[in-house]
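Entry for zinc ion complex. Fields follow.
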Amino acid sequence: MAQGKPIVPRNKENPVGQVARIRRSSAAIRRQLSAARKLLKAKISSWPFQIIETNAKRYEYQISLGELSSVADEILIAMIGESSHELVVSEAMAAYENGTAQSAVNIGNISDDYTREITDILSGAPYQRRVSLISARVFEEMRGFDAQAAKELSRVLRNAVEVGDNPLSIVGKLSNQFGISQGRGEKIARTEITGALRRARMDEAEDARQRQGIRLAMKHFSANSSTTRQSHAARHGLLFSVQAVREWYAQDANGINCKCSQVEVLVDESGKEIGAGKKKARQIN
Ligand SMILES: [Zn+2]
């Protein structure tokens, strides 16, 4: 029955891949934040100020409280004007399609019983439904990112104004906050894109099992890099049911910054990998 070996990830340092999609998303997030940065710079340099010297030098800006409190909304508008959402959503959807294709090729390679054609899968209603769920989810995450970034940036600005920082120092504090926001945006994009790919593989493996009766398990490939978490590395080479993998990723922060990948393998009734030999047969959870 099984004629081919499972297709394992080529990149041992980064089994899940998706580097280009993540890079494009990071660039889009940077563009989005730089629109907010431009706005804030222009604002700060347009504010008249008085220098007050008592014990220490203080800058008092001639701006109304109303003007200061509307900054968060203005940042949000600037960010939405240069929104990265569309790109990040489409990269996540492409990652889902990529994962589905990887899964179809791999299962087709290990099992003659697998007769699904990738074009049929992609045009099917279940696939379309899942993809729209992914898109809604990523969109929601990115919207939350915008709101949080705008809120934090305006808080940093307000605090600096209240303290009486000079304009250069305000820009410096904002720069620092931009860096934090960029990092958070990238983390969201990375997590959603790699998560979409993994979800696609699990969805297809589950479908193959349910619709075609192909007994599959997910073999874990951990990244062999310096930042790999011990608990992730410990799963390397082990087999898990689709459900167990889903649950694991739903726990703690396992999905965040994870470069691990799971590959479908054929298993026998007792959950042992078929064709792996005695040594490699591991438990199935
Ligand atoms: Zn991992």
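NOTE: The pocket of zinc ion is lined by residues 222, 232, 258-260 (CB under 6 Å).
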